[in-house]
Amino acid sequence: MTTFKDSPLHAGGETPSGRMTLAQIFESLMGGDLTVRITAYDGSAAGPEDAEFGLKLKTPRGTTYLVTAPGDLGLARAYIAGDLELVGAHPGDPYGALQALASDLNFSRPSPLTLATIARSLGIEHFKPIAPPPQEALPRWRRFAEGFRHSKARDAEVIHHHYDVSNTFYEWVLGPSMTYTCAVYPDLEASLETAQENKYRLIFDKLRLKPGDRLLDIGCGWGGMVRYAAHRGVKVIGATLSAEQAEWAQKAIVDEGLSDLAEVRHSDYRDVTETGFDAVSSIGLTEHIGVANYPAYFGFIRDRLRVGGMLLNHCITRPDNSSRSRAGSFIDRYVFPDGELTGSGKIISKLQDIGGMEVVHEENFRDHYALTLRDWNVNLVDHWDEAVAEVGEGTARLWGLYMAGCRIGFERDIIQLHHVLATKLDDRGGNDLPLRPWWNA
């Protein structure tokens, strides 16, 4: 079979007909020398016939998605809509196919002659934008109707977009812990539930919590940390912007007999007025705050703590402090609208700059998040039929794609997960902490 590398188009020429097949177009846009197999609805194919994984373009609509949004957004639109298949992979866990595809994706700009040939081959109708899949959020510039970026109203809307999918769906994906944050695996053989329990144990110990203490858990999700601490005699207030999370968490609190100690509020964390907490946990919230709002965010936490109180900030980060903070198109439109990531160094510096807080420990858990995502994908595969019946195939495909893609991101050090531990100092800059770490790693 003639490959793109050997074809006239690779040298800047044209096929005898002057047009390209869909598979040739794919191959040209991906840089040639494919390791995956490409097939298309026009009957064309490219790439090795014995490839373990492949791409199958099924419909003209998929072509339009790919042409009008080149890159990850167009691929996601076509895949979520069912117009593009990752051959050889289960839609609940396309990790292997994404790994193979990532080695092929190049998206280097073709020559002007090749671009003209592509346009002539496809026809003008594919260059007219069409409505994206219903799972897609509005682009950033159209979200102003929901308020300014990171206003209370707009934050509530984007949290609703991601978290109010279906508690039943999350139960299948996350497992019994209902914990949608990175677990901490004590060893490679540990189960997801063991690792999530271990994560809460680690945070509880780092915060030096004991019976009778008061904890504020902001961005508390389904109340995993709230209930863990309350079971150990700590009085806890949790806050979440997700109505479905708050309802689920409050029921779990009642069912577990924790009503005297625990409460989860459906509210913005900025509306919590109580002060004097012994500790604040922020587990997976900072990603939604916005880098420009870090000073106000950390100032709020400092002002809610008593002198000597502890903060544990658990947050996805970038591996450096200079990259742009805004998420890419796919993540922003389908996963975390308005989400922003930065390096752990910037998080630490913003926390230090507010004054009155001392950072005492920091560590990276990116390998643990890759394992967590692996196990979530396994759960989705195990409950695929139920998940599709609950939220629809498009949403289920989106979650499989998103989690497997993020797993690759953590494995390749494109993103990380950091704990930052800090304490509120007294007026003379003192603290009462032990000289060495007091928790079991």
Automatic annotation (TrEMBL):
What EC number(s) has UniProt assigned to this enzyme?
A: 2.1.1.-
User: Which Pfam family is an annotated match for this chain, by its short name?
Assistant: CMAS
SUPFAM superfamilies the record matches: S-adenosyl-L-methionine-dependent methyltransferases (SSF53335)
Q: What is a GO molecular function of this protein?
A: methyltransferase activity
Please, which domain of life does this record's source organism belong to?
Bacteria
**Organism, as annotated:** Gordonia insulae
Stated family: Belongs to the CFA/CMAS family.
Q: Which CDD domains match?
A: AdoMet_MTases
UniProt keyword annotations, A-Z:
Lipid metabolism, Methyltransferase, S-adenosyl-L-methionine, Transferase
The record ties this protein, via Gene3D superfamilies, to: Vaccinia Virus protein VP39
Q: What is this protein called?
A: Putative fatty acid methyltransferase
Q: What class of enzyme is it?
A: transferase
